[in-house]
Fold this sequence. Notes:
Distance between the termini of chain B: 44 Å
Mean pLDDT of chain B: 97
CATH topology of chain B: Ferritin
Shape of chain B: globular
Helix content of chain A: 55-70%
Strand order of the largest sheet of chain A: 1-2
CATH class of chain B: Mainly Alpha
Number of strands of chain B: 0
Radius of gyration of chain B: 18 Å
CATH superfamily of chain B: Ferritin, core subunit, four-helix bundle
Mean pLDDT of chain A: 94
CATH topology of the largest domain in chain A: Ferritin
Number of strands of chain A: 2
InterPro entries (chain B): Aromatic_CoA_ox/epox, Ferritin-like, Ferritin-like_SF, PaaA_PaaC, PaaC
Shape of chain A: globular
CATH class of the largest domain in chain A: Mainly Alpha
Low-confidence stretches of chain B: none
Number of helices of chain B: 10
Distance between the termini of chain A: 53 Å
Number of domains of chain B: 1
GO cellular component, one term (chain B): cytosol
Largest interface: A-B, 48 and 49 residues
Oligomer: heterodimer
Low-confidence stretches of chain A: none
Protein name (chain B): Phenylacetate-CoA oxygenase subunit PaaI
CATH superfamily of the largest domain in chain A: Ferritin, core subunit, four-helix bundle
Number of domains of chain A: 2
Pfam family, one (chain B): PaaA_PaaC
CATH architecture of chain B: Up-down Bundle
Largest sheet of chain B: none
Structural class of chain A: mainly alpha
Pfam families (chain A): PaaA_PaaC (PF05138)
Structural class of chain B: mainly alpha
Helix content of chain B: 55-70%
Amino acid sequence: MYSQGLIGAKTDTTEDEAFLVAFQARIDAEEKIEPNDPMPEGYRRTLIRQIGQHAHSEIVGMLPEGNWITRAPSLRRKAALLAKVQDEGGHGLYLYSAAETLGVSREEMTEELLSGKAKYSSIFNYPTLTWADIGAIGWLVDGAAIMNQIPLCRCSYGPYARAMIRVCKEESFHQRQGYEIMMTLARGAPEQKEMAQDALNRWWWPSLMMFGPHDADSQHGDQSMKWKIKRFTNDELRQKFVDATVPQGEFIGLTFPDPELKWNEEKGAYDFGAIDWDEFWRVVKGHGPMNRERLAARQKAWDDGAWVREAALAHAEKRKARREAAKMAAE
Amino acid sequence: MAATVSREVLTAFLLRLADDHLVIGHRLSEWCGHAPMLEEDLAMPNMALDLIGQARALYQYAGEVEGKGRDEDQIAYLRRERDYVNCLLAERENGDFAHTMLRQLYFAAFMQPLWQGMLSSSDAHLAGIAAKAEKEVAYHVRHAGEWVVRLGDGTPESTRRMRAAVDALAPYVDELFESDDVTAAIVKAGIAPDPATLRPSFEAIVGPIFAEAGLEWVEASYGQTGGRQGRHGEALGYLLADLQHMQRTYPGMVW
């Protein structure tokens, strides 16, 4: 789930011209770059940053959804939500492993998340207030993530591309599940429809922000495109998302919170209103409604779990020592 | 031919099992996103999912047997506090990771021989549920057991916490093995084994784990009981408030 437009990676690199030209030739020939291949430092750094952000988003994303597991309205929904949140954790694990192939450890990445140095998708800095938010996250947030991630299945870095293939399959299942929750609500009692509409009102604009700044304001898009880490620009992906999602919402009788949203026959796509970039940057910089709580929850899990991780390590070492001692005694 | 049981007795038996699984599954799911490591953020929801799945199968069957047209959600969500008949162990609060893993080990070590006994149940439907659950509970025994060993043997702090968990949960073990009129009728009809006979199997699972963990068994000086009669600890009310929130706030709606 949940990759967003990359924020804050430095793509500058210092290799000589011949090396960069040869590397670019491999990229242009659509060759996959593998962990042991030579690669520019900027390429490696960009990927570590992007895959790390993506992994962190999966992990932090467990919190707003986990918030409704114990209160899910039926056993069927509870089981599906448990399975979904477990999938997200699995994606996190998978992505951390992909990032580790670039020479960074999961512990280092976790420390960067907790210190605030590494980002995660800002969408999770909004609260899940009602059950409908679980539907909206599946439908809109996973839907937006899929738009971002399908092209990543063709990303030039092999381990990331391969991870994305599996992740995308599960995300598309989550997206359908989320939409089905929204459909059930929209066709239910008036209170349920109201709940669904309210969730759409709150999640629509933050979902559009998931694609990152406009192309004109995106610092690193060009280099990422050239290296084929990215295949489409932020604005192209955002437009695809709007075009795919609006008919789905209208089909179930919901109204999008954008008076300027309308079909543009000439362009063959929807026009939509201006995104509040002040809000976007405010939330990215840590001032969203839930930034502090999300990081505090992860910090608490990390701190409270320290004795468990230490015990696991100590036990493994003791066991190894005992095994070696037994072997020595036998010889 | 084995004796048969009344609908009421079979329903009562199924509800005990179903409530155990729903309640302990609920407790495990409270860890989601807050586990000591990512692997456990996957493992605990995974076990919770097994438990909720088992609870659903049992509630659905209980609804059929009861014959009053109640579905799994009506039974799971819309009873009053005193109508929940789970064992007290299942509802104990998570505490630290040592408490949670020990609680899971005890429950799984109780359920494993019970499910195994129900594989040959005279009730074919229940035997079918047991066939799936028996495989799942074997994994729970292994997973929780490995953690009890790691934590018991690990560091001075983890050993201290593990011992504290053994001490804290000791009063809730005996209740698992209680027999009464309901279990007697169930045994007589060949539906499930008598819980009282499962103690040796439980000890055969937990004993070697404790030995490897360097833990000593603690006999409770006084065992707590009452869950099967709906007399619970105070914490269950809050669990039910969470669980029932949506169904109580929006009665009769489809989700």
